[in-house]
Design brief:
By secondary structure, the chain is an alpha+beta fold. Helix content is 30%, strand content 28%.
Length: 587
């Protein structure tokens, strides 16, 4: 029998009333705890009662008072084995009961456990982290975007007429300047003649009036040309702003960075190969401002599906078929099957049906999914998500290969992996309007360059390549993009394709075998076995072992009774029980 001690703020006041009923459970299937006690409420008397009664009212005398829990620890030990410690706190704000001066009952919460995550991770937003300074403006990534749309014929006509009128006016003006310069040359050419009268000789004369008039005409023509160029530049600026608004930037943060900042706030280290591999996946939150306007932020806003850290974890688990663990101050986040670690413990065979002395098993047929859907959402504010459905939706349909009576087929269940974001779409080429505008801009760049300080209309259009395409400055739901440096990576819809999520993360849920993987199991429940504390310690670290027949098993739940030296175990054994399944893909 293991030795069990309880400590309140590192002080041993003796055990609570429920000490012999103590059970320590590990719920690998649901909570993914490293161990939690079965009692949520403990009753304390004697010295422990006196200490806690004083503790809950010390907020009146300069102490922290009732709204801060008291450290509470349970230590289970056995000679030759490392101690198990349940580190938590006594919560005085949930159903605290004081029975006169003799007894106090209070709730127990696990520090850095699943209850802690639900309570605390949902208790703060990313906006709060920004107010604290944990998230700063330097953490935001600038995502370049341009407004795109399909122009009508009238816009093309206007552009064509503008180019024609500009070209015609420029040619005519250059011709007039040339003629005016010719007039200056003519007026400045001297006229050689012979004087009359006594002493006649050769004389030279200039047509001063014509020279002055021709010079004035050249200066005026040049001034007109400059004025025209300025007007053309302004016209093109206005035309570009109307037809092709300038490239702007929306602020965003990566999923990895959002998780790191939340973990930093909670005193945890992040370790995740999954998120490291997705470090270039950025979330652009809802936008009610144009990119670059004052007040825009890159973190999720109020009412978004990932407003809190708890929201973020739940969405990422759904998106990447992932799960998390918290151990020794480290937050682990990986595809759910990556936590399978084979341990040295061997599960003994004991009948879980004690009345008939037989092993009793169930098939996990209720876990099969006939239709497995993965889909990104629309953004009604962004026409691109409505017009281009490429990669948005994926469906895996499981059916029998052979069947006799369609009415008796029992494959059922629907899985809806609803991703609460829209996909980004990058600009890969110039539209017809942009090509015409580029020609128009090139003419303007050449002309304005004559007098120095030229424009860069043509390059401005070229720089739009690699930007996010939006039909509006505003977003009604968050958008996910994959970045490559300061531009969007090529083939956004391919990188974010719903089927790609299936191929990389969700295929392990298929009952039909894919790449050697299938999801068929036999389930064994309520098997009572003897268990030493050392064996329980093994189960704390992992849940994948072998049985005494050499089969690999996955423990889902353990309830350990330290005072009794036994445990109740639920586990599953991977065993294919049908090959009569096929899976079809629909995109």
């Amino acid at each position: 029998m293991a030795n069990v001690r309880q400590y309140i703020n590192n002080q041993d006041f003796g055990e609570s009333r429920e000490y012999r009923d103590l059970k320590i459970s590990i719920d690998w299937k649901e909570k993914k705890e490293s161990g939690t006690v079965n009692v949520s409420e403990l009753s304390f008397v004697d010295k422990a009662n006196e200490y806690l009664q004083r503790r809950i009212v010390d907020g009146m005398t300069g102490g922290v008072g009732i709204f801060e829990g008291e450290p509470f620890k349970i230590v289970v030990s056995e000679q030759g084995s490392p101690n198990y410690e349940f580190n938590g706190y006594l919560d005085f704000t949930t159903d605290l009961t004081v029975i006169g001066g003799e007894e106090i009952k209070c709730q127990v919460k696990k520090e850095h456990g699943e209850d802690w995550l639900n309570d605390v991770a949902d208790g703060f937003s990313f906006a709060y982290l920004y107010d604290l300074g944990t998230i700063t403006n330097g953490d935001f990534k600038k995502i370049p975007y341009v407004i795109n749309y399909i122009p009508d014929g009238m816009q093309l006509i206007v552009l064509s007429m503008s180019i024609y009128m500009m070209t015609k006016e420029i040619i005519e003006n250059i011709q007039e300047i040339a003629e005016a310069i010719g007039a200056i040359v003519d007026a400045s050419t001297p006229v050689i003649g012979v004087s009359v009268g006594f002493g006649a000789g050769v004389v030279t004369a200039w047509d001063l009036g014509n020279f002055i008039w021709a010079s004035i005409k050249v200066v005026a023509r040049i001034a007109y040309t400059i004025a025209m160029l300025i007007a053309i530049k302004n016209l093109i600026e206005a035309l570009f702003e109307q037809l092709l608004p300038k490239k702007r930037n929306h602020l965003a943060m990566s999923f990895q960075q959002l998780t790191e900042k939340a973990c930093q706030h909670l005193g945890l280290q992040l370790q995740s190969q999954l998120l490291q591999g997705k470090r270039n996946w950025y979330h652009i939150p809802r936008k009610d401002k144009k990119g670059g306007e004052s007040g825009e932020r890159g973190f999720p806003s109020l009412s978004e599906p990932i407003y809190t850290f708890g929201d973020l974890i739940r969405v990422m688990k759904r998106m990447w078929n992932a799960d998390f663990r918290i151990h020794d101050g480290v937050f682990y986040f990986e595809r759910r099957d990556q936590f399978r670690v084979v341990g040295g413990y061997v599960l003994p065979s004991y009948y879980n049906n004690q009345e008939r002395l037989l092993q009793q098993a169930k098939f996990n047929t209720n876990e099969i999914v006939a239709n497995y859907n993965i889909f990104w959402n629309f953004d009604i504010q962004d026409q691109n998500t409505l017009d281009d459905q490429n990669g948005r939706v994926f469906q895996a349909i499981t059916t029998p290969i052979t069947k006799i009576n369609e009415n008796f087929v029992t494959i059922k269940n629907l899985a809806q992996i609803d991703l609460p974001f829209s996909q980004g779409k990058e600009k890969t080429e110039l539209t017809q309007v942009e090509k015409i505008l580029k020609s128009l801009g090139k003419i303007a760049d050449d002309l304005t360059g004559i007098f120095g300080g030229g424009t860069n209309f043509a390059s401005r259009i070229e720089n739009r390549i690699g930007s996010l395409l939006l039909s509006s400055h505003f977003l009604t739901i968050g958008k996910v993009v994959v970045m490559n440096g300061d531009k969007l990576a090529n083939d956004q819809r391919g990188l974010l394709r719903a089927k790609k999520l299936w191929d990389e993360y969700h295929f392990i849920n298929s009952f039909a075998e894919i790449n050697g993987e299938h999801n068929q199991y036999l389930l064994y429940a309520d098997q009572r076995i003897p268990m030493t504390y050392a064996e329980f310690n093994e189960c704390l670290r992992n849940n994948l072992f072998n049985d005494d027949q050499g089969n690999e098993i996955e423990i889902e739940f353990v309830e350990y009774l330290p005072y009794d030296g036994s445990a109740v175990v639920n586990y599953r054994l991977k065993r294919k029980y049908t090959n009569n399944l096929k899976i079809e893909y629909v995109e």
